[in-house]
Each structure stands twice: as structure tokens, then as C-alpha cells.
Design brief:
Blueprint (H helix, E strand, L loop, with lengths): L6 E7 L11 E5 L5 E5 L2 H9 L3 E6 L1 H17 L4 E6 L6 H15 L5 E5 L7 H15 L6 E6 L9 E5 L1 H19 L5 H18 L10 H15 L3 H5 L8 H16 L6 H12 L11 H16 L3 H14 L16 H14 L1 H15 L10 H14 L10
Parallel strand pairs: 1-4, 1-6, 2-8, 4-5, 6-7
Antiparallel strand pairs: 2-3, 7-8
Helix pairs in contact: 3-4, 4-5, 5-6, 5-10, 6-7, 7-9, 9-10, 11-12, 11-15, 12-14, 12-15, 13-14
Amino acid sequence: MSQEPQVQRLVTFLGKPKKGAYDKTNYRLSSVPPQTYESEFVAEALASFLKPREVVILATDEAWQGQGAELDSRFKKLGIEEVRREVLASGQTEGELWSQFEVLKKALRYTQGAVALDITHGFRSQPFFAAGAVTFLHLVDATPPEIKIYYGAFEAPSNDHTPIWDLTPFSDLIAWSSHIMIFLKTGRSEGLAEATELIGRYLRKEWARGDRQGEAPSLNQLGQALAKFGGDLETVRTGSLMMGKDGASSSASSLDKELAKARTTASSAIPPLADVLDRMASMLRPLQTDRRLSDPEGVKALQELAKLYYQMGRYAEAASTMREAYINQHACSQSDCPGQPGYSGEHRDAAEKAWFSANECQAKEIAQVRNDIEHAGYNNQPMPPNAIKKKIKELIDKLNVEESKEDA
């Protein structure tokens, strides 16, 4: 289990209260154990709880003139090493709104540790822009900071205290879903395991807060299964992806099982997870088979894999997978199991020759388009991109899974 990151920077909005000053209250953070701090400023309470090294105060000139000096002195009394103000435009024009976004982006970009963002006193559209800036950094930065988001719910007091809500899971869910969408559209799994771990960390924390019995939910195995399947898909490791090895399940089957577990354990805590997990599972199901890859069902699964590569715009992998599916219709048990014990390159060569002999025109047609891609168009008349796409799709769709198999 990874450790909770140490917050090094607190970014907070300073607004202009209607009465000239905020009301004092006992702010409580639902940590383990809970922490309480009395103050007019939720940011002061958070600084006391989180003990950041530095604080960035986002404030318009009007807001700063009202309470800026007081808030600054409160932070310094807590021993914060560095306190600085970043000027926010009032947001009266489109240009000023974009300026707010840029200031937020700059304040949140940090490489020395986690960042806490307090949106409690964000004025008008400021919290919306904060959410946009967080999402932007998650998607664009190569190494985005870990950002924790807090809101002091003064309007929802509980007994003798005002709760501080940890809204980080909503931000993490957006980041996680974005990584999933990249995975579904491209097959790339970079960043996905880490984003999955963030969701898992939240689930474990909620489990501890609720003092529940039994084993805490974990998404570590789901992260590992995603990384394994993603690696197999990216590098076209067909045997590992569809058949497994040494008694282990295929990476497609293993991931499907972990998705089912996550749906059961995680969806009750974070309902939107169910939709995303279901989309992933629907991608995996056509790729799973317990039959030989030379059987009609196995060839059909290979056809689905070729279609998946095609839909992802990975035409080289689609062409290669499609070609091997055609050859498999002439393969024996020693030549339809890539990477498995007992696989024979000699028998695979025999299957390829049998396929070529029975389908010479088709084999040459497939070789032309595949070679054109594999050799990066290095010939006198390389095929235009649209022609390549069209031909690959036609050949995938023509794959006849019911064709009789000739044992090589």
C-alpha cells in the first residue's frame, strides 16, 4: 500500500464575505482520527491539519484589501515557511476569465510534493475554473502534480463543527476516466495503473473511516491486470493476450475478472465507476476464447482483435493480426499457439505454405498491404492512407471463420 502523500503546497481562494468578515467555526477534517480547528478561515484550519511548506493565496485586489493581511499573518503564526499572494482578475471579461485560469494553472503546477486546493471561498466561476485547471493538468502535463481538493461546508454544519469535505475522489475519477478513454481508443495503458491506484487509495481510506470489518477493497490487482493486458495489446503478444501461458489465464481473461471484482467492490462507493468498467469489459469479451486459435471460434476471436486494432487506428497491428488469422485456418495444434510450450516454427511455416497454396491471390493481396505498412511506404508507388485503411477493413471483414481447416 502506498503512503498518503505529504502536502507541500496549499492553494486557497480568498473571497469577499458579505458581512465584511467570515464567521468563526470549528472546522473538522475527517481524517483518522478526525482533526478540529477553530477559525474564521477554512484555509487556516487546513494549514494546521496538513502542515504545508508553503501557501499560495489567490485573491482579487478587493478581496485582499479586506482580509489579506489578516490571513497572511495567521499562516505565518502557524510557521508556514512561505506565504505569497497571486493576483486574480475580477473576471468581468472573457480575457480576465482566461487570466484566472492561467493563474490557477501556475499555482497548481508543483513538482516537490502533493498540492492541496481549497475552493471554499472561490467567487462566482472560480471553483469551476479550478476544476478545469485540475483536469487540464491531469491530461496535459507529463508528470502532473497530485492534487487534493477540499471544501469547507459552512452551510452544512454537523453538531458542534463544520465539516471539511475531501472532494479529491471526484477529481481522481475524472483523471482515471480520461486514462480509461485513452486506453479504450488507443490501447495505450501508460498512466492507467497509477490512476487506478489513486481510486483504490480513496476506497481504502473510506473503508478505514467507516471502521468496517473484513478486508479493505483494493484495486492493486486491477492495476496490474491493466498493465499486463495493455503491454500485450501494445506489442501484439497474441498468445499471452488470448491464451495465457504456463497454466495462467490470458491477460484479456484476467483483466475481465479483475474488472468484475472492481465493479462489485468499488461501484457502491463510486457509482460512475460502473459505466467505465462496463465499457472496458465489453471491449474484452470478444477477445476471449477457450478454444484453439485455429478453431472457428478462435479465428473469430482473432478477427475481433484485428477489428479492435483497426478501430484504434493501429493499422499495422490490424494487418498482421488479420494475416495470422487467415493462416490459422490451415494450422495444427503445434502452429496455432504463439509463445506456448510445444509451438513449432516449422509447423507454422507449413501452415503458411498451405494457406498460400490454397489462396495465392488472397495471400498476395494481404502481403501487399501489410508489407506497404511494415516497410513504411518505401516503394515506387506506396498506397494512399485511405486505400490502405479500406483494404485492411475489407480483408478483415472477408475472413471466413467457417472455412474448413487443413492440418499442416
